[in-house]
Amino acid sequence: xxxxxxxxxxxxxxxxxxxxxxxxxxxxxxxxxxxxxxxxxxxxxxxxxxxxxxxxxxxxxxxxxxxxxxxxxxxxxxxxxxxxxxxxxxxxxxxxxxxxxxxxxxxxxxxxxxxxxxxxxxxxxxxxxxxxxxxxxxxxxxxxxxxxxxxxxxxxxxxxxxxxxxxxxxxxxxxxxxxxxxxxxxxxxxxxxxxxxxxxxxxxxxxxxxxxxxxxxxxxxxxxxxxxxxxxxxxxxxxxxxxxxxxxxxxxxxxxxxxxxxxxxxxxxxxxxxxxxxxxxxxxxxxxxxxxxxxxxxxxxxxxxxxxxxxxxxxxxxxxxxxxxxxxxxxxxxxxxxxxxxxxxxxxxxxxxxxxxxxxxxxxxxxxxxxxxxxxxxxxxxxxxxxxxxxxxxxxxxxxxxxxxxxxxxxxxxxxxxxxxxxxxxxxxxxxxxxxxxx
Length: 439
Known about the structure:
- The protein is mainly α.
- It has three domains: 5-144, HUPs (Rossmann fold); 146-178 and 216-310, Serine Threonine Protein Phosphatase 5, Tetratricopeptide repeat (Alpha Horseshoe); 326-438, DNA Cyclobutane Dipyrimidine Photolyase, subunit A, domain 3.
- Helix content is 46%, strand content 6%.
- It has helices at 20-26, 58-76, 93-102, 116-131, 163-173, 218-231, 238-241, 255-260, 265-278, 283-305, 326-334, 340-352, 357-370, 375-385, 391-402, 416-423, 428-438; strands at residues 5-10, 31-38, 82-86, 107-109, 137-139.
- Strands 3-2-1-4-5 form a five-stranded parallel beta sheet, sandwiched between helices.
- Helix 4 links the parallel strand 4 (107-109) and strand 5.
- Helix 9 (265-278) runs antiparallel to helix 10 (283-305), helix 10 packs across helix 15 (391-402) and helix 12 (340-352) crosses helix 13.
- The longest helix has 23 residues, at 283-305.
- It is globular and about 70 Å long.
- Mean pLDDT is 93; it is low at 43-49.
């Protein structure tokens, strides 16, 4: 009997544990190939007319490189390796199909993802495999969200359009999915002599991030989970500290690892529940779950509305006056708007690839309201610059601030002077980043 050869296509699930698709594939095949398609200049997440640059800036790209090295290292513990394919094409499907044919793959898996383009890629892959007359079993399981679509007390097409009704219903009727059993072994890797366009991982250079602890990979994700919960108990004060503007421990920093799938939201939730059971349960521990629910809401909203996430009128289909002025846009990017709190936040982003949640709200509000710019250009710049870019959360939040998304009030504008007085009362943050940018 011929061997069953499996190929797992790593995309935004760059981890081994609680990776349901990988685990299911591993249980069905004799040999396994683990593949990542590397395309740093491909614009996969949104329309490219808004920002004539590659969609991944240096900070985010460095984090991806760190994550790929970590994933390969972890795979080596399973006597496996990560095959990184290089392609200059925007569509990675052809690269996967070529590999499927070359290795006589019998089973193909990828993690389910809410993204419009991720789902489109998977459908195109299946269509091309069928057109080629290949007999392949497809495996796609969801472990990227807290809940599965079948759990909701509403049809997904009738999902609530705003967060609070969504949150109340899922809290009342849904139970977070359990994490998968620990994966202890993987099938062996087949002969790979026929593979072309394989990259040498050593060519993916890495450097130390401005926030040195913000290092990509599954291992670092779990180290941060342990640090934030068990080593420091910072989670027990999260609700009081979460609006900080700078520093490491005022917030969890889980978003960067979640964005690449180095850790799953279910793993974070499971550890949070253990912490609440063994140490303390309070409003702050609940608030971390609350933030995971915001992520959940945006992911399912993207699933429902697809590429309307990138439309000027948003998911609400509201036409609002907007403008785009290149000079104004560049001044905002460089932190030269004349609004000190905004300029400090934007200079922080430019230098580090990171900005606090409070900062993101303020600079987005300024971009849309004070500067009168089309919200999509701001969203696209964040996509380029943020280490923790997540398509659903980023574009969903920008729609929210742009008045075309999930905000039931339809309009959200912050008083920038008041916000600065509240969250930077001693002017320390503004002074630090305005001075640092000048050096």
